[in-house]
Task: inverse folding
C-alpha cells in the first residue's frame, strides 16, 4: 500500500494505491496511473511494490529531494522507508508507506480538562497579548467568509499556520464513499510535507475528538480536529503539522495550540451547519415560490404553521388545454413537450402574478386556488381576472405555434368558490398543499363542462354574484354535473374587450334560455336562430338541447342522454 500526495500552485491531491503505480506529468497537471495505463515513454516516477515495501524509480529530469535539494539522476532507485518528499520543478510529490510510517508515529493524545490543566501548569510563559489578538482577529476574518466559498476553507488552513504557529495545514472533506479529499491547504514549507496520514485521520474521525502529538522524535508532530454536522456526523478534518527545521526547533504540538485548532474546527463546523441550514432554507424557498406568489411565500417562510390543516372559504380554478390528444398527433414528441411547457409556464406565472396558490398539474392543465393559506378579501375577482389573463396569453402562444398546429390553442377554465378543507393533500414523504371537498370537485366538473357548453370560462352563481358591475357574465343554463347531487346554474364570463355584436346578443340568448326552461321550445329556437352569427355565444349548444328536448317529447329516445325529467335541467354528466 502506498499513499501519493501531489502539491503545486494548481493542485493538491492525495490518493492510495495497492500495487504498481506511477506519477506522470501531463498538460493538465500531475496524475497517478496504474496498469494497464502506465505510459511507455520516459517522464515518470514509478512506484514498484515488493514483499518488503516500495521502491521508487526516478525516470524524470531535474528531480531532487525536497528538503536537501539533492539531485536525483534518472534511473536512480529509492527504497521507501516511511516517507519521501521529492521536488520536480515547482511541484512536490510525497510518497508514504503507511505501515512503516505509522510504526514510527507516537500515539495520539486527546484533549481533556485535567490534562490541559496539568500541561498548562508546566508552561512558564503564556502567549503574548498581541498573539491572542491575532488569533481572534483571524477567527473573526474566517467568520466573515460564506461557508460555501473556497476562501472560507483557505482561511481556515491559513489560521493553523498563522497565527497558531504550525508549519502546514490542510482541510479535508469526507466523500460519500468514505475517502478523504483535500479541499484547502496552506503549506509555506512544502518540503516539510504535503501529505496526511490517512490512518490518523480515520482515528480522529472514529473517536470524534481532537487528537495531537505533544512530542514526536521523528520531528513531524500532527494535530487533527474533526469537522462535524449539527447531528454530530464527522464530515471533514482540520489537519495541521509541525516539523523541525532551521527556523523552528520544536518537536511537538502544544496543548494550547491543539485547543486553538479545535476552536477553529468548531468554527468551521458552525459554518458548514450554517451552509446546510441556508441550503435547506433555499430549497424550501424555491419550493414555496414554485407554488405560491412571492408575498405568500415570504409569509409562509416566516411562519410555516400557516400551512397547517384548516377549513376555510376558497376559490378554486381548474384550467385545461382543449384538444390535447389531437395536438399530440400533429407535433413531434419534442415539440409537444416544448409547446406544453410553454403553456404551463405561462399559466403558472399568471396564477402566481394574481396571488394564486398552485395546487398541482394535471396532464395538460393545472389547478389553483385563492384565499389559502393567507386571507385574500377579493379572492373571487382575483381568480376570474386570472382566467381572463390566461385566455389572453393563450392567444399569443397560439400565434407562436400556429405554423405547427392545425387549429388555434383553446383553454377551458372552471371556477367555483366555497368551503374546503385545506392542508397537505400529498403524503408524509412528499408534502403538497391544497384543498379537498365538494368545492374542488365542482370546480373540476365546471372545467370539463366547458367542452360541452362552448364557453371558455364557466363559473357558478356563487362566483358570478361576487363580481363587480364591470364584469361581463351571463347565465348559460342549469345543468346536472357528474358527481354533483343538485343541479347547478352555470355562468359564462367574457373579457372586457368583447365585441359589440356579442354584447348586444346576450339579452336575446338569455331570453331564449328562459323560453327553453319554460318549455316554449319554438320561441327559444326562433330567438336563437335570430342571433347574429358573429356573436360569440353558445347558440349551437342551446339549439342542440332544444332539438334533444323536442325529440324527447316526440318519443325519440335513441339519442337522448338526459337523465332527468325536468326539461329545464341540462345533463352534462359525461366526464
Result:
Amino acid at each position: 500500500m502506498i499513499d501519493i500526495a501531489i502539491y503545486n500552485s494548481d493542485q493538491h491531491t492525495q490518493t492510495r494505491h495497492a500495487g504498481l503505480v506511477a506519477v506522470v506529468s501531463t498538460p493538465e497537471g500531475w496524475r497517478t496511473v496504474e496498469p494497464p495505463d502506465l505510459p511507455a515513454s520516459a517522464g515518470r516516477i514509478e512506484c514498484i511494490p515488493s514483499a518488503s515495501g516500495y521502491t521508487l524509480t526516478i525516470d524524470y529530469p531535474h528531480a531532487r529531494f525536497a528538503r536537501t535539494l539533492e539531485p536525483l539522476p534518472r534511473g536512480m532507485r529509492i527504497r521507501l522507508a516511511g516517507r519521501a518528499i521529492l521536488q520536480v520543478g515547482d511541484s512536490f510529490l510525497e510518497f508514504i508507506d503507511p505501515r512503516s510510517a505509522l510504526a514510527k508515529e507516537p500515539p495520539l493524545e486527546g484533549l481533556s480538562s485535567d490534562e490541559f490543566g496539568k500541561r498548562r501548569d508546566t508552561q512558564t510563559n503564556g502567549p503574548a497579548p498581541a498573539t491572542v489578538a491575532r488569533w481572534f482577529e483571524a477567527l473573526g476574518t474566517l467568520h466573515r467568509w460564506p461557508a460555501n466559498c473556497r476562501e472560507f476553507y483557505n482561511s481556515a488552513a491559513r489560521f493553523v499556520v498563522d497565527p497558531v504557529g504550525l508549519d502546514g495545514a490542510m482541510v479535508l472533506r469526507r466523500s460519500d464513499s468514505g475517502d478523504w479529499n483535500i479541499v484547502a491547504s496552506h503549506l509555506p514549507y512544502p518540503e516539510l510535507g504535503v501529505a496526511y496520514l490517512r490512518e490518523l485521520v480515520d482515528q480522529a474521525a472514529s473517536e470524534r475528538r481532537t487528537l495531537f502529538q505533544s512530542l514526536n522524535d521523528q520531528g513531524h508532530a500532527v494535530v487533527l480536529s474533526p469537522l462535524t454536522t449539527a447531528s454530530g456526523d464527522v464530515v471533514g478534518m482540520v489537519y495541521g503539522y509541525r516539523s523541525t527545521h532551521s527556523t523552528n526547533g520544536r518537536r511537538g504540538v502544544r496543548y494550547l495550540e491543539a485547543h486553538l485548532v479545535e476552536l477553529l474546527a468548531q468554527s468551521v463546523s458552525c459554518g458548514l451547519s450554517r451552509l446546510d441550514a441556508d441550503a435547506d432554507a433555499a430549497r424550501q424557498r424555491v419550493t414555496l415560490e414554485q407554488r405560491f406568489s412571492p408575498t405568500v411565500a415570504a409569509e409562509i417562510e416566516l411562519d410555516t404553521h400557516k400551512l397547517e390543516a384548516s377549513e376555510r372559504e376558497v376559490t378554486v380554478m381548474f384550467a385545461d388545454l382543449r384538444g390535447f390528444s389531437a395536438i399530440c398527433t400533429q407535433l413531434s414528441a419534442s415539440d409537444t413537450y416544448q409547446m406544453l411547457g410553454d403553456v404551463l409556464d405561462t399559466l403558472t406565472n399568471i396564477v402566481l402574478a394574481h396571488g394564486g396558490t398552485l395546487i398541482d398539474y394535471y396532464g395538460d392543465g393545472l389547478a389553483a386556488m385563492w384565499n389559502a393559506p393567507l386571507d385574500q378579501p377579493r379572492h373571487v375577482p382575483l381568480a376570474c381576472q386570472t382566467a381572463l389573463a390566461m385566455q389572453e396569453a393563450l392567444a399569443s402562444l397560439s400565434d407562436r405555434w400556429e405554423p405547427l398546429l392545425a387549429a388555434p390553442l383553446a383553454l377551458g377554465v372552471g371556477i367555483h368558490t366555497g368551503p374546503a378543507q385545506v392542508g397537505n393533500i400529498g403524503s408524509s414523504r412528499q408534502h403538497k398543499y391544497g384543498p379537498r371537498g365538494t368545492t374542488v370537485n365542482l370546480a373540476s366538473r365546471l372545467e370539463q363542462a366547458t367542452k360541452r357548453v362552448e364557453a371558455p370560462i364557466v363559473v357558478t352563481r356563487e362566483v358570478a354574484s361576487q363580481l363587480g358591475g364591470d364584469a361581463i357574465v351571463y347565465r348559460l343554463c342549469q345543468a346536472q354535473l357528474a358527481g354533483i347531487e343538485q343541479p347547478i346554474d352555470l355562468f359564462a364570463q367574457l373579457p372586457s374587450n368583447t365585441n359589440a355584436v356579442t354584447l348586444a346578443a346576450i339579452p336575446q340568448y338569455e331570453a331564449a334560455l328562459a323560453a327553453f326552461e319554460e318549455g316554449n321550445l319554438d320561441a327559444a329556437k326562433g330567438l336563437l336562430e335570430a342571433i347574429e352569427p358573429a356573436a360569440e355565444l353558445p347558440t349551437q349548444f342551446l339549439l342542440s338541447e332544444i332539438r334533444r328536448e323536442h325529440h324527447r317529447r316526440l318519443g325519440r329516445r335513441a339519442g337522448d342522454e338526459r337523465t332527468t325529467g325536468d326539461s329545464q335541467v341540462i345533463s352534462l354528466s359525461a366526464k
Notes: The first strand starts at residue 2 and ends at 7. The CA atoms of residues 370 and 379 lie 5 Å apart. The radius of gyration is 39 Å. Residues 113-124 have pLDDT under 50 and may be disordered.
